[in-house]
C-alpha cells in the first residue's frame, strides 16, 4: 500500500471533494512559453480552503527557523561576533529565536587550537563557502578560544542558540573533549547541543573511512567520543546522527541513543548534483512524493523514539547549489513550502545551509562584501510570523498539486504557496473573509532581484483572494494588529 504524508492525504481528500477540476498548462510548458515571450492565456485555478479550526495538527516550534554554516567559518573569528552588525540584523529579522548550526563536511577538518592564532587576514568577516564536493584533501582550519567567545557575543546579540558540530572522522579525543569543554563553558545557555560527525553515512564516499564502514562501526566510534565528552561534561546534550538522507541510520541511532541525545537530525537536499541537467526550477517546484514519504517516515521514527527531529542541514541542490535554481526566486517559494511541510509533520527545526557567496546561501556577503539577503531568505521571512503557531488541518476543493495551502491559528490565517504556472483564486470559508494579505512575489521564478514581501490591510474584507502564479500569500482571516510592511 502506498504511504501518503498527512499533506498528501489531505490533498487526496481534497481531490475527491473537488467541485471542479481545472485544466491548466503543465509548468514545463508554461515556462517554455514564457521564455518564448508568448504569455499563455491565463487559466485561473479556483480553490476553496476549509480549515478545521477546532483541530491542531502540530505547533510550529518557536526555534523552527535556523541557518547552517560550515564549522570552519569559525576560523575567521570576527565573522560570528558582535562586531558583525549587518549579519546580526539579518539573523534577527529572520527569527527572534533561531538556531545556528555549525557543522558540514568542513567540520571534519577543523582543529581546536587553544594556544594558537587564527588565520591571519586583513579582509573583514572572511567568509567560508559551503563545501562544493567531497573526497578532496583539505587543510585543517584552526578554531581558537577567541572565535568561541565571539560566537557567544553573536548569539547574545541575535537571540539565537547554537548546535555545535564536533569532528569525528579525524578526531583526537583529548583535543575534542577540550574543545567541547571550552564551547560549553563559553556558550553556556546559548548552546543547545553538540553533534559528533557530519554525514557519517557518507564517510566512505568522502574517503574518510574504508568501504564496508557501517552504522555499527560509526556508533562504536560515536559512543567512545560521546563517553569521553560526557565524562568531562556530565550535563552535555547531543543531537545526531546528522546523516544525509538515510533514515535507517536515524532509526538505529534513535533506538540506541543514550538519554543525553535530545534531538535526532538528518540532512536533505531537494536536488543535485548541479551538473545533472534534470536539476531545474521546474523540478524544484514540482511535488515530490518520495520526499513526502521520507517526511512521513521521519515523523514515525521521532514519535516512537519520543525524540524531536530537526532537518539540521538542507537546501535546494547539493554540491553547493546550482546557478539559476538555488539563487533565484523559485528557491524562496520552495523554502517556504518546505518549512511549513516539515512543521506540519512536527519537525522541530529546519536549518538552511549557506555561507559566503554560495549559490544557495540565504545570506550572502563577507570577505569585504556587504551582507545581503538572497531570494531564499524572503521565503523564510514569510514564515517568521508563523513561528510558535498551531497548524490546523485544511481541506481544499479543486485540488492542484502545485498549490500548497496551510492553516495557522491565533490569529487564523491561510498560507498559500502557488508554485503553479496559473493564478489561484482562493475562496475563503464562509463568514471568514480576508482582512490582511501578506504577499511574496517577484517578476518571475527565475528572478534574482525584485523580490517583494509586502503586507496590505484591505479596505474591504474579501471573500476570496487571488494568488498570482509563482507567488505566495499569508491571508489573515481576523481583524487585528498588523505589523509593518517588510
Ligand atoms: C553536505 C555537506 C556540506 C556541503 C553540502 C553541499 O554536509 O558540507 O556543503 O553537502 O554539497 O552533504 O552543498
From TrEMBL:
Stretches that traverse the bilayer: none
Protein name: Beta-glucuronidase C-terminal domain-containing protein
Organism of origin: Edaphobacter acidisoli
Organism ancestry: Bacteria, Pseudomonadati, Acidobacteriota, Terriglobia, Terriglobales
